[in-house]
Structure formats: structure tokens, C-alpha cells
Amino acid sequence: MKLxxxxxxxxxxxxxxxxxxxxxRIDRSQKKSLKGSPFQTAKGMKAxxxxxxxxxxxxxxxxxxxxxxxxxxxIILTEGYDFICLGCPSDYVQIFINDTLLLYRKDLMDKKYxxxxxxxxxxxxxxxxxxxxxxxxRQEIRKGNQWNNNPEKYGTDECLDGGHTxxxxxxxxxxxxxxYMRCWLNKEFRK
Length: 191
What we know:
This protein has 191 residues and is α+β, with helices and mostly antiparallel strands. It has one domain. 34% of the residues lie in helices and 25% in strands. The strands form two sheets. Strands 4-3-2-1-6-7 form a six-stranded antiparallel beta sheet, covered by helices on one side. Strands 5-8 form a two-stranded antiparallel sheet. Helix 2 packs antiparallel against helix 3. The longest helix has 15 residues. The radius of gyration is 18 Å and the shape is globular. The chain starts with a helix and ends in a 7-residue tail after the last strand. About 7% of the residues have low confidence.
């Protein structure tokens, strides 16, 4: 009876765990990016990160599968938050690998993410605006640049609308790096 009770407790404990190793590593990397961010708005993101750990399970298995099936590729994860909703989970999530984008949008009715898959040509649309952040980060990574050391190179926190975005990059050898961005600016609007 004692062994059965211990087994049941172990199963309950492990099944109630919200945080996997991957989720913990993502969270740690994102917290580090907030701590080192030059943007004042980064300080207010702690509640969002805390709740996102709970919601990340909706797309974490897809991310794990990509990491296992494409061990030599760099994967870009973006989690975008609405500026006016404090302590809310990410509105949208994007996972980018090669020319494929998995897009997850928050469904307000059932509080889960709905997944769609897109194939991107040249990594952005013909106007050069949609997904241009992903394309630019990918170029910086290919060049070997420290893309996350200077977020002010790409954007600002002096904007009236927009949202918060956390970019998380998964490198082939298991390294994870993140960067917080308040408002990504197109190149022509940067300092």
C-alpha cells in the first residue's frame, strides 16, 4: 500500500508540473534579456513571463520536435505581447525555421493557441515589412554578430503603440539567447 501511495504521488507531482526543462531554459534566457535591456519597459514584463510559462505548453511540443528533427538548424521563436494588457500571455507566437513559419494566435474563447503554417518566400512579404524582423535577425546570426547585445540597434521603447516582443534563438549546439524589444523599427526609421 505504501508503494502504491508513493507511485500515485509521484505521478501526480510529475503530471502537475507546468515547467519542462526547455520551458525553464527559455524563461531563464528571457529573464536575462530583460535584466540587461536598455529599455525601461523591460522592467514591467515579469508578470507576462510568469504566465507565459503556463501557456507555452500549447506550442512547446512543436518546438521540441523541431529541435530534435533539425539539430543543425537555428530556430527563431518570437512571443509577442499586447502593450495594454498587463500580466497577459503572449497574443501571438512565431516559430521560424528555414523557410517555414509556424504561427500561433491566441483564441480568446477557448484560451488556447490556434496554429497555422506558412511558407515564407525570401523570409518576408513583397513589401519588405512583414517578418522583416525575422529576416534581419537571421542575417545577423549568419554573420556571427552578437544580435542581442544592442537592442537599440533595431528599435526603441519610445513608441505610443505596438507591443512587447521577446526573440529567442535556439542554436544547433543547444545554446539559447533572447532579446527583449518594445517596438521594432523598420530600417528607414532608425537612428
